[in-house]
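Bug #77: duplicate submission created two jobs. Keeping one. Sequence:
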Amino acid sequence: MRYFNSQSRLHQLASIFQFLQLDVSFPMDEVIIAEYNPNWVLSFEQESACIRAVLDRNIVTRIEHFGSTAVPGLAAKPIVDILIGVRLLAKAKQVAVSPLEQLGYAYWLENPDPQRMFFVKGLPPNSPRTHHIHMVEPDSVLWERLIFRDYLCQHPDEAARYAQLKYNLAQRFSSDREAYTAGKTEYIESVMQKARQLDK
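Kept job's structure:
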């Protein structure tokens, strides 16, 4: 897994997209794109309820479903990405790890980015990944991912182009998660530019 810093906002966001894929290789951890499954929304709702039940409500500010599984009709890797806002990461590191481990999550202690915490549920080859938790403070640039999510939700033609790109990349780089993710960077930057133009 690599995390690249950049001075431009767009390249910083592209770096975050790379981070979100958790490009750590595990045996049999292939890039597999599945047709959209409406149960992904239900899975998020059920999981977020469990998370709220075990985490201190005084540190959690919001929980969002993001990534491709949050876009209706969009093909995706069948992993539900959950974005959790916390008031202070330092406090979350003290009180959130153990409760989430009780829910079956593994905490990535060696994460090179101090501005976020990352948890994964399911680790190949024992079981497939099913959920990712990305935990950040309210001012994190990671919240810009919601702009990308909302743009794809509002523009089905754009979502269809993204799906085709992902299918093509998954076919070329089925065992190389980093190459798969890098192949999406230019497209993601172009969509973010269009989304920001609409936001003005």
